[in-house]
Amino acid sequence: MKTIYIVKNIHNKDVDTDVLDIINKNDGSFYIFNNKELEKKIKLWNKYFRFIIPHYAIKSNPYIPLINTLAKNNFSFDCASTHEINVIKDQNICNDRIIYANPIKTNEEVEILKQMKEKPLTVFDNVSQLKKMEKYDIDISYLIRLFVNTTDASCPFDDKYGAQPGDIKEILNYKSKNKLSFKGFSFHVGSGNKNIDSYLNAMKKVEEGIQIATEYGETTEIINIGGGLDYKNPNLNELSKLYYKYSLKYKIFAEPGRFFSEASFILKVVIVEKKIIDDWILYYIDDSTYHSFSCMIYDHLDYQKGNKGKKSKVYGKTCDGTDVIFSEIYLPELEVDDILVFPNMGAYTMCSASDFNGFLVPKVIDL
């Protein structure tokens, strides 16, 4: 009989019996989409942030059944590219429920944007991008993305994005023959940021931006608090109070991704080989850091290593010597064809996977 071992991280619960039933009845590696878990996260969001209009960041996981569940719950969507916009439009969701949140657009994307009859709300952080709208003769409504400190985030932006006060003035002072309609401000404190001061300081930046906009005769209608907020953040209640105060005067948008996608997916992988070298056990699984486990590298996903069991390493299935899932983890002694189960594998996993070495991304089974 195959052994099923659940690899725990700090936040997951035990896997329920319905999930174990699917694992036992289906061969190979695959994801399990748990819509019940997604519904729980929707309820959690509404508990704290019912006054915020959520725009799900589909970059975290563009799985269509997940998107459709959110759409049925009146969610809007954050898209990083015209391709993602088309993914949403293919679900018969109108562009007025989309934020085109990537501040930098290529010429090719702007050309596609021009062809859209209904333009989505768009984000910029420099005047060059507005000039590009004029070059392609596009009328558009926009938010200015502000520079905020993201050093406390697990995935900081550093200086990649964000307008400073001088940039805000340059953008608002830009005169165009096109209708470029300023609507408000946007920011992103960085993924995994749990420091309440980061959010407070970001709102101070917003207030500074609103003052500058007022000086230029512009009215701020929208504050987009961006992404980075997840269901594990210990400050949900404090943040709810903070943003509610602003919601009395402005429309508040957000771009949560991980909040909804992470816990909605479980990954099952199979041990395909085993070696014993000295006091180490080496396991090889049918997945890799080029596929589902890219999140270990780029998204800093971590699991409890423990100190019980056998000292082990877990390798991915590609030919790359650096394809290491765990360089050291304590596991019970397992055998070939035994199963490892990883909860909380819905965020930045399948969406960032490649086909390196000709290996495909695991399929998804709906619970």
From TrEMBL:
Write out the GO MF terms: ornithine decarboxylase activity
Supply the alphabetized keyword list: Lyase, Pyridoxal phosphate
Q: Which organism is it from?
A: seawater metagenome
User: Where does the Orn/DAP/Arg decarboxylase 2 N-terminal domain lie?
Assistant: 37-261
Which cofactors go with this protein?
Answer: pyridoxal 5'-phosphate
The record's annotation in PANTHER family points to: ARGININE/DIAMINOPIMELATE/ORNITHINE DECARBOXYLASE, ORNITHINE DECARBOXYLASE 1-RELATED
Q: Which GO terms describe its cellular component?
A: cytoplasm
Q: Could you tell me what this protein is called?
A: Pyridoxal-dependent decarboxylase, pyridoxal binding domain
The record's comment on protein family reads: Belongs to the Orn/Lys/Arg decarboxylase class-II family.
Question: Has UniProt tagged this entry with the keyword Nucleotidyltransferase?
Answer: no
Q: Which Gene3D superfamilies match?
A: Alanine racemase, Lyase, Ornithine Decarboxylase, Chain A, domain 1
- A Pfam match: Orn_Arg_deC_N
Q: Which GO terms describe its biological process?
A: putrescine biosynthetic process from arginine, via ornithine
Q: Kindly indicate whether the keyword Ligase belongs to this entry.
A: no
Among InterPro entries, the record links this protein to: Ala_racemase/Decarboxylase_C, De-COase2_N, Orn/DAP/Arg_de-COase, Orn_de-COase, PLP-binding_barrel
